[in-house]
Design a protein that fits this description.
With about 400 residues, the protein is an alpha+beta fold. It contains 14 helices and eleven strands. Strands 4-3-7-8-6-9-5-2-10-1-11 form an eleven-stranded mixed β-sheet. The relative contact order is 0.19. The model has no long low-confidence stretch (mean pLDDT about 80).
Amino acid sequence: MRTLILIRQFLDDIRAQKLRTALTVLGITWGTVAVVVLLAFGVGLADQMQRNARGMGDGIVVVFGGRTTRAYAGYKEGRPIRLREEDAALIAREVSGIEAISPEYGGRGRPVRRGTAIVNPYITGVLPVYGELRNIIPEPGGRFLNDMDEQRRRRVVVLGDGVKKLLFGDEEAVGEQVFIGAVPFTVVGVMRPKTQNSSYSSRDADRVFIPASTYRALFGAPFLSNLIYRPVDPVQAPAIEREIYELLGRRYRFDPGDKDALMVWDTNEMMRMFRYLFLGFNVFLGVVGSFTLTVGGIGVANIMYIVVRERTREIGVKRSLGARRRDILFQFVTEACLIVAMGAALGFLLSVALIRVVALLPIQEAVGTPTISSTVLGATLALLALIALVAGLLPARRAATLDPVECLRYGT
């Protein structure tokens, strides 16, 4: 009953001071929009960047041969370390904690053609597990390389979607033949398009994939471009890396502490950096948005101070009739919370509408899709609750501590 009376009185105050209340509500509305939209853009951008990074593979580590910077075991510094295919089998056998590993040959210089259409893609020779490691998913009707392709050195090829577009256009490619140099290959699969903003040597859309055994036999390649593997547990990635340095250090006679002898790209570390980066970015956006919302909260506090002054005699009458201080306190805190709630509700509606409009624009690949996640919603509601409490509590405490006698004399 008391709450209904407070709400009725609150509505009477709104009707009496329409312009003042409207401006205060708009201040909260604008502040809410600022917080929600900025955080939603931050979440959308973080999701898009992580999705782009995962296009290269989930939790993979890429190892390249490097050049020694220390003399070791009678060998001078500056010696190149060049990896071989048997290194992959050695690592799989000797290093625990590796889920899958594939050697990777690669190079350009041999055109790929079909009829009069010619491209010069990056040609990659890999094991079948490579497709899973690198998230290379074939289009329906095709497949990636398999064990029989590798064992029999089959002349089969999987085309990146960009290469397929250049060679075949909109025509079906699976089952057709292309020539790599002067050698015919049968197309067994076409990579499904994927978002990828990080790569080495070439993006997957611009590659063709053939069995490692075929690459080695056809091109006579003695050395790998790199090794690629995935740890079973990403937490163990640093320990696995140390073991690989020690194992290959013994094999190629370099100091295991010489980090330049091998170049290691750990995408798990990259993802951790992304998470920390965007956590800080979202905190920054939240702080910027909260400044705008705080200004709106100051407006609520100001209007509540004015209301307290205008209703001083009313406070005196209520106190003289037996109202307690906490009753007065509750009244003005409730009114402040109602003002904030009105502005917040309008702000959330405008934010949702704005985000839906932005989602229709062709900018998702650059900034992602703004998302009002549970984190964004929780952070905004917590900030609104804090502002409502502070903006209402300070004027309410002043009203509750007024002397009833002085209140009754006010304005006489």
